[in-house]
Amino acid sequence: MLKEDIRTELLEIFQELLDHFGPRHWWPGETALEVIVGAILTQNVAWNNVEKAINNLKEEGLLSISGLIKTRVEKLGNLIRPARYYNQKAARLKAFAELVNIKYEGDLEKLLSLSTPELRMELLALKGIGPETADSILLYAANRPVFVVDAYTKRIFQRLGYLEADVGYSVVQDFFTSNLPCETYLFNEYHALIVALGNRICLARRPLCQKCPLLHRCKTSSLEKENSETALGTTMGCT
Ligand code: SF4
């Protein structure tokens, strides 16, 4: 398919998702630090658990670089317990806060003002921060035009017929980045809309294709499969 055609289709998909779900106002968070803490805590857990953990930190007045630094990892783990894997995640929060404290004089803005490649490298050097978390921080906390890839992105765009099975993170990211205008708003909203579709409709098992705004362009919808199975069944019954 021509590059221009892919770009047009990706923008049409974006518009169809936006029309269906409306603006997502993602990422929820009053400050850049709250977005970063959420990005670290949300690994392998539903967002409502993350919200409980963040509220616990807020209630204790610890949602700050100095708050995370001065709190022992055990206490931090207890506060973020709803986010699961809480000891691991508490250590990650502290490691992030220590990076800001030691290398950037406790000033988060200094870290966030690095160039995009420098900031990405700095984040990826922290234990437990992979490409998805680093890119979520770049996009949603630092407002950089970086496309975030997650399991929903791969699943949906494989089903739509744009991606091969088992493609790696950077291949998927390049697919979007090289075919879409490089705009923070677009990447921000697009990822959030993909999450909405993957979370509510394009489920891993039994996707709810009859409710999907992308059904008319999907290569592998379960409806298509059901229809062909029904057709096959009818033929067999008639012969
Ligand atoms: S039609 Fe079904 S399989 Fe295709 S994207 Fe929508 S929910 Fe997923």
From TrEMBL:
Q: Which top-rank group of organisms is this from?
A: Bacteria
One GO biological process this protein is involved in is: base-excision repair
Residue ranges annotated for the HhH-GPD domain, each copy included: 41-200
Q: Provide the alphabetized UniProt keywords.
A: 4Fe-4S, DNA damage, DNA repair, Glycosidase, Hydrolase, Iron, Iron-sulfur, Metal-binding
A single GO molecular function term of this UniProt record: metal ion binding
Enumerate the SUPFAM superfamilies for this protein: DNA-glycosylase (SSF48150)
Q: Provide the cofactor list for this protein.
A: [4Fe-4S] cluster
* Family of this protein: Belongs to the Nth/MutY family.
Task: Output this protein's name.
Answer: HhH-GPD family protein
Specify the species: Syntrophothermus lipocalidus (strain DSM 12680 / TGB-C1)
Q: Highest lineage ranks of the organism?
A: Bacteria, Bacillati, Bacillota, Clostridia, Eubacteriales
